[in-house]
Design goal:
Two copies of one chain form a homodimer.
Chain A: H1 10-17, H2 21-28, H3 38-51, H4 57-64, E1 69-74, H5 80-95, E2 99-104, H6 115-118, E3 125-129, H7 136-141, E4 146-149, E5 160-162, H8 166-180, E6 184-190, H9 195-209, E7 215-221, H10 225-237, E8 245-248, H11 251-264, E9 273-278, H12 281-285, E10 291-294, H13 297-312, E11 325-327
Parallel strand pairs in A: 1-2, 1-3, 3-4, 4-5, 6-7, 6-8, 8-9, 9-10
Antiparallel strand pairs in A: 10-11
Helix pairs in contact in A: 1-2, 1-3, 5-13, 8-9, 10-11
Chain A binds a DNA duplex (30 and 30 nucleotides) through helix 2 and helix 4.
DNA sequence: CGGAGGACGTTATACGTAAAACCTAGGCGG
DNA sequence: CCGCCTAGGTTTTACGTATAACGTCCTCCG
């Protein structure tokens, strides 16, 4: 409270405590065992408290050569899902003294399309969702440690990948629906080029291919309730035997399917079973509640961060996909008599 | 591609281009008009490109004394709303060469309850939502430029405030409902101590107080669909004449009210009108679609960031609350005969 | 033809921190 | 009583950048 209006530095603290700047750094950095007496240490801490001293992060980062900050690249934050991923990642990060800065989607943020420029921070590593595909090339340029989320393990050029076990999720959905007796399926697919959605399509086709007498129609829509509604409406209005079950890539698409069904006068689950994927708040808000595959977004973020920390520390990242599980609610039932 | 594995510095670029480090800084910082010839400038740029040079942000921040990074403090990201706020803030920030780092909610992130420690970055300013109230004391400690979102202008100790015109939103809701003929109201309130929710309660009471023959019952619930459902159910089960309209502090609460209504066998909007506030994706997913007050989250974030930029540059921030507007959908109708 | 600028750079320095290298008593074993 | 160790510090340096202050030539005008 003496120098003026500029923030106090470690030198100011040193002066106030009557020691050298080095001593301050030692004490505040907890490196003083056997180097500084307990009494002076306390004096330093006292002075720091009184001045309201906060170390200058920029200077520390420069000195240390790292920033304990990582970048999380995600698509636009239009659902709770990636908010959950962020929360999980940030939690683990905080436990290890790291910060997480977000780079949400190349579109919509502004002219600076360069994640590294726009995330104004010096970075130690990157976690990137494969859905933010166009940011990838920029990222690969730098040689920062990289963890890919929801990404093809084979196509990630050696980057560590952390994935949800979507394949198993789709398996659970199809087992459930086939077990109920459904045979004619509509796949309401997300209109996004991303590995995680390819997996859904592939596994669904593979599963149904194993069962004779099944049919599978696919229709694509952007992830928006209204787009999903219109796509579903036209698909259902087509001639021929109507599908009895709609498998959606995502809960929002499922909400669109609900609206289409209402417009067409079809009742869920009596005339039509619908499944989602995500388990957003939306899933239990609609009526009937949605049978869907629950993805643990926070765990996903945690695992991503843990993997990145492992890479940064030269350890081997944990192997294995993150389990997901079907939660059966009121939107699925046996098909009515054909 | 020569020095080894460590990142190239401006000195490496200088050496490669055969100039001094200062020249590199001049050229890359666009301060070279009349100081460096176009040919050498191009040589420098070329060298920088070849080496894949990126300036060390930590060093730059140290030198410059600022970081062009601001902190956005928000409650947990459990709806799209604050994701929108972030997106808007980040867009404006990017246009001005700023980065935004997020500090979501003191709970849930980890042991580091200090926003400044956990947001590992050196900061130039802070935008804070009043809903993250417990972080505030920590923030007030530092004397960073501060913009408060959704906060009592009178109680913000001189910090700049940017607010949505919630008062007008509630006015629109009550006008709409009163116009339809409703007289008995239930206020489903968010169980959060925050100015923005107090405003809702206050304005609603004031508005109805002006109209003789109206009644207002209030019930509080945490912002979760299930909590809202049970709270609503018990409120509606109480004896006495049943409310004909439920005004909810938020769309999620409204979704809970829907479920309560279904359980009690009440039809919306025939037996019960319901209004929300936010206009989340949820609002159009439920049936009937929700009459609600649309809050432009991105604009909110933009205005917050613009205000902070104004403060940082010593300009006067733009005055005036952000307009909101009622969007009437299927969840409101005249009350059935008393 | 002398010197006053421009054009084109370079040298030197400071930002605040962490930590290696160095200093100085005092105590103590041999 | 010498040498060495240890406790308790201090001096010094480096991190990479931006920029103020300082040199050169070369040109051109009076």
């Amino acid at each position: 409270m003496a120098t003026g209006s500029t923030r106090p530095t470690s030198r100011d603290v040193a002066q106030a405590a009557g020691v050298s700047q080095a001593a301050v750094s030692l004490v505040l950095g907890d490196k003083w065992r056997g180097r500084v007496s307990e009494t002076t240490a306390e004096r330093v801490r006292q002075a720091a408290r009184e001045l309201g001293y906060r170390p200058n992060l920029a200077a520390r980062n420069l000195r240390l050569g790292h920033t304990r900050t990582v970048l999380l690249v995600v698509p636009a934050l239009t659902t709770e899902f990636f908010a959950g991923v962020y929360t999980g990642a940030a939690r683990i990060a905080a436990q290890h003294g790291f910060g997480v800065v977000l780079y949400p989607s190349p579109e919509g943020i502004g002219p600076a399309r360069d994640p590294f420029a726009s995330a104004q921070a010096a970075l130690d590593g990157v976690i990137a969702s494969s859905m933010a595909a166009d940011a990838l090339t920029a990222i690969r340029g730098d040689q920062l440690p990289l963890v890919m989320l929801d990404s093809d393990p084979a196509g990630s050029h050696g980057a560590t990948t952390v994935n949800l076990d979507i394949t198993d999720g789709i398996r659970q959905v199809t087992d459930h629906l086939l077990g109920l007796g459904h045979r004619r399926f509509l796949h309401l697919a997300a209109d996004i080029a991303s590995w995680t959605f390819e997996v859904r399509a592939h596994e669904l086709a593979a599963r149904l291919g194993d069962v004779p007498g099944t049919s599978l129609l696919t229709v694509r829509a952007p992830i928006s309730i209204d787009d999903a509604r219109t796509a579903t409406e036209t698909a259902l209005a087509a001639k021929g035997p109507r599908p009895t079950a709609i498998v959606c890539d995502d809960d929002k698409l499922a909400a669109g399917a609900y609206k289409a069904a209402r417009r067409l006068g079809l009742r869920i689950p009596d005339d039509l079973s619908v499944t989602g994927l995500d388990d957003l708040a939306l899933a239990t808000a609609i009526d009937p509640e949605l049978t869907t595959v629950r993805l643990d977004a926070e765990l996903f973020g945690e695992r991503g961060m843990q993997a990145l920390l492992a890479v940064l520390e030269g350890r081997e990242p944990q192997q294995g996909d993150i389990p997901v599980h079907l939660v059966v609610r009121g939107s699925t039932a046996p098909p009515s008599a054909p």
